[in-house]
Amino acid sequence: MVAADGTITADLEAARARRWAAIKAEREQRLRVAPTSGGPLDVDETGRSNILGMVQALELLGPAMEEPIVWKRADNVLGYYTRQQFKSVALEALAHIQAVYATSFALEAAINAATSLTAIEEVAWPD
């Protein structure tokens, strides 16, 4: 089929697939480290699991969990946190993850709505 501007529809679909693959690759990069007020935290799959595990431990143990919480940050610097500080930076990290996913889904919608090769290629992550 041919689109209104003369572009072959198959070309548009191939361009959409390529652009979405590039957006997802960038998303994975952005999901590696979260900037937080307590320093950069690893938020890849292992990092997320570790953060959530510590938050659960803090909830279960409460004041019995000794302070400071010592955590190796993404920049290989040890961070020293109170229980509340760690919970706060964990929430910031989770908010970062959610924001990255939300942006990627908006970019996917823009790719799918684009009606020309140029418009598809112009879809990009905000700086």
Task: Describe, in plain words, how this protein is organized in 3D.
It is a single chain. The protein has four helices and four strands, in the order H-E-E-H-E-E-H-H. The chain is mainly alpha-helical and 127 residues long. The strands form two sheets. The chain has a two-stranded antiparallel ribbon with strand order 1-2. Strands 3-4 form a two-stranded antiparallel sheet. Helix 1 runs antiparallel to helix 3 and helix 2 packs antiparallel against helix 3. The mean pLDDT is 94.
What is the ordering of alpha helices and beta strands?
Answer: HEEHEEHH
Mean pLDDT: 94
Uncertain runs: none
The percent of residues in helical segments reads 55-70%
Count the E strands: 4
Note the total helix count.
4
Spatial extent as radius of gyration? 20 Å
Kindly name the structural category: mainly alpha
Cα distance spanning the termini: 36 Å
Largest sheet: 2 strands, antiparallel
The general outline is rod-shaped
How are the strands of the biggest sheet laid out side by side?
1-2
Per DSSP, what share of the residues sits in E-state strands of 2 or more residues? 5-15%
